[in-house]
Amino acid sequence: MPSIPRSAAVATVMATALASGLLAGSSSAAADADITADAAGVRIHDVQGTTRTSPLVGQQVKDVEGIVIGVRTYGSSRGFWLQDPQADADPATSEGLFVFTGSTPTVAVGDAVKVSGTVGEFVPGGLNSGNQSITQISKPAVTVVSSGNELPAPVVVSARSVPSAYAPEGDPAAANSINALPLKPGSYALDYYESLEGSNVRIGTARVVGATDPYSELWVTVKPRENPTSRGGARYGSYESQNTGRLQIQSLIPLAEQPFPKANVGDVLSGTTEGPLDFNQFGGYTIGARTLGTVVDNELERESTRPQRRGELAVATYNVENLDPTDPQEKFDALAKAVVENLSSPDIVTLEEIQDNNGAKNDGTVAADATVKKFTDAIVAAGGPAYEWRSVDPENNKDGGEPGGNIRQVFLFNPERVSFTDRSGGDATAATGVVKEKGRAALTLSPGRIDPANTAWEASRKPLAGEFVFRGRTVFVIANHFGSKGGDESLTSHHQPPVRSSEAKRLEQAKAVNTFVKDILKKQCNADVVVLGDINDFEFSATTKALTDGGALYPAIKSLPRSERYSYVFQGNSQVLDQILTSPSIDDFSYDSVHINAEFADQNSDHDPQVLRFRP
Fold first, then answer.
1. pLDDT, tens digit, 9 for 90 and up, residues 218-255
2. All residues at 6 or more sequence positions from 537 whose CB lies less than 8 Å from its CB, including other chains
3. Residues 190/492, Cβ–Cβ less than 8 Å
4. What pTM was estimated for this model as a whole?
5. Are strands 273-280 and 200-203 parallel, antiparallel or unpaired?
6. Element (H, E) at 275
7. 249-286: pLDDT as tens digits
8. Whose CA is closest to 589, among 321, 305, 229?
9. Domain 8-146 identical in fold to domain 313-614
10. Which CATH architecture has domain 313-614?
């Protein structure tokens, strides 16, 4: 039977349902719209249609036939996938479909079934997430016709089958959505994956590009030559380079029967991985593996940077991921060991995500001296220097992050190598400024916060500025933790390009820091300024361009080969979030992104620290 065309009535009902949120869950739009249709004899490819949304959404269908190819017995979206072994001739129409049961399914893989129910479009994460929807049948009546049937042959997903272009441009008339565009699986990777939604797919041996996470997921690429990093990952180098070969892997096998493998970036998922292709809220297209390959350990090692030489100042930045005294001593010890052994005890370390003295307990506590002492003591115990520290406590719950945690930036410095110039008066609301003293720039408050009343820093960490002296030369260090990417749509969004709403705040934050740096350079054109921290944005982003505006700063990570430019791994993409930027006077330096966390299943933080060495 050919695909049933979308009628004007169904299109109107779908638009209404999407606007009202009816399709965000498993409920049907038909109840409100009172749509009826003679949909008996409909095949799975008729339900799926040739776009991302079903032409039968909101309608009742009867006795849709297929073979069960996967069963999900856990989580809030329990159900099973069925596939029609008799495919049509249209590559745009998927032959697979998810059936949402809401409780543990009573069918088994290999059952031939007939399913009656309501066709809907479920949006993982909700309508406002921007995620693509999953075509499904809900409120099903299921009849098992026979058991033990041979499964439909899997589609082999490989470097040859996945197109090199990622996604079509969205329709401007539909807010850049690609939902209504006809699928072109031979032209775009997202269209190719969508044309296999719910179908049985298989990959062969593939390289791991995203380590196993706490939720028993990992990422592989079926395109080993696509933007490889020097350590086996897949580098995200521009908004136009999406690494089309990435797929998330989950397991449909109960963990009690087969524990999910622990893998690091660069390992290999060897053999065959096979199962239905799903769409996941936290990763987009995902293979729910009935058969899971074997991880081959590539023995990835954590990096160590070289020690600074006598005349070099080493400045580092490290996001220590919500560190507070309630964390186990093992975390403090591991982070401390990394500072001493992997970072070679830098002269200055700016820390991000230092929490207050009781962590997430929301009782008004803002001081973090206990947190920092526990960390600096651990560094000494690991054989490192007795770091001193400076910071400014935030106002309670005014800087974002975990409620009650009051994260902030902190300066650590080795007093045997560098001194700190204290200029008193800095607090959460006082803004440090720049003056000229004896022909040189100086801060009015050190440590001090930059422009804390600026709305750009609302519910976000304010930059921390401080003056240091190394071998008689003043160095201005500005520690940052820009606004997060929370709220941005994923790369697999139905909006193409995806909406990156969080960029607006970071752009304003970058402008504020750039203005401050220019003020220093106006007072002293050859001042040494180091701006660093968790910038939460890429080296090619508008945020970075705003930081560097007018030549005030240079993103030092660009001095590295492209294959080494990353500090974070997200959904199989190795990317830059943490940065160190330098003023023009720092024109000869050594830079290292020290890969010790982001590529590993066992992490002490989800960020890799950065180190800059130069002679002031």
1. 999 999 999 999 999 999 999 998 999 999 999 999 99
2. 482, 485, 503, 506, 543, 544, 576, 577
3. yes
4. 0.92
5. antiparallel
6. strand 273-280
7. 999 999 989 999 999 999 999 999 999 999 998 899 99
8. 305
9. no
10. 4-Layer Sandwich (3.60)
Structure tokens at 133: 């929807």
155-296 fold = OB fold (Dihydrolipoamide Acetyltransferase, E2P) (2.40.50)
- The amino acid that residue 322 corresponds to is N
φ, ψ of residue 363 to 5 degrees: the values are -125, 15
Amino acid 75: pLDDT = 82
- Has domain 8-146 been given CATH number 2.40.50.140? yes
Residue 595 tokens read as 């890969």
Residue (of 230, 299, 225, 306) closest to 267 by Cα position: 299
Phi, psi of 510 (to 5 degrees): -65, -40
**CA nearest to 298, candidates 356, 211, 215:** 211
Ordered alpha helix ranges (H), 157-219: 189-194
Is 399 within 8 Å of 353 (Cβ atoms)?
no
The full set of domain ranges for the chain reads 8-146, 155-296, 313-614
The pLDDT assigned to 23 comes to 43
- Closest to 534 in 3D by CA, of 427, 449, 461: 461
Using 50 as the pLDDT threshold, list the residues of the chain that sit under it: 1-37
pLDDT of residue 5: 30
The 10s digit of each residue's pLDDT in 35-86 is 344 556 899 999 999 999 999 999 999 999 999 999 999 888 999 999 999 9
For the chain, give the number of residues: 616
User: How far is the C-alpha of 98 from the C-alpha of 118, rounded, in Å?
Assistant: 12
DSSP codes of every residue in 600-613: -SS-S-SS--EEEE
